[in-house]
Structures are given as C-alpha cells and as structure tokens.
Protein: chorismate mutase
Organism: Aurantiacibacter marinus
Amino acid sequence: MTDPATDAQLASFRRSIDNIDAALIHILAERFRITQAVGQYKAKTSLPPADPEREARQIERLRALASEADLDPEFSEKFLRFIIDEVIRHHQRARGE
C-alpha cells in the first residue's frame, strides 16, 4: 500500500484542491461584499430582505448549470440555499431586524 504522506500523485491532487478552495473563498468573499451592498440598498429603499421569486429563479438556473457541469443539482441547491439564507440574514441585519 502507498503511504499517503509520500504519494506524489495524491500530493498533486491535494494542491489542486487547496488552490480551488482558496479561489472559492475569494469568490465567496466578493459575492458577499456585493450582497452586503444590496442589503444596504434594500434597507435604504425599504425593500424586503428576501426575494423568493428571484431565489426560485436562481435555484432553477443553478440546478441547470450544475446538471450541465455534471454536478449533483441537489448539492448545488443545498449550497445555494445556504448562501441565500446567509445573505438574507445580512440583509435583515442591515435593516436593524
């Protein structure tokens, strides 16, 4: 059996995964910077923190993208729902709720 600590192929895979994880964090940070601006705008203009119709459209769109990318649509929906719920929490906080 190969030792995971010295397996060059495994180390290469893990470096790639680490790079992707770093990119995901930076992308999420940018997404949340933008959604925080949206939350402040919504608070200023008295718009509700949540937009269920947009959320449904986004989930449908990303499920389709996931299918095209050979990614489980159920996983993508759970991931997006987690992000949406966090964004709504931020928007509620911007309104002082």
Observations:
- DSSP finds three helices and no strands in the chain.
- The chain has a mean pLDDT of 93.
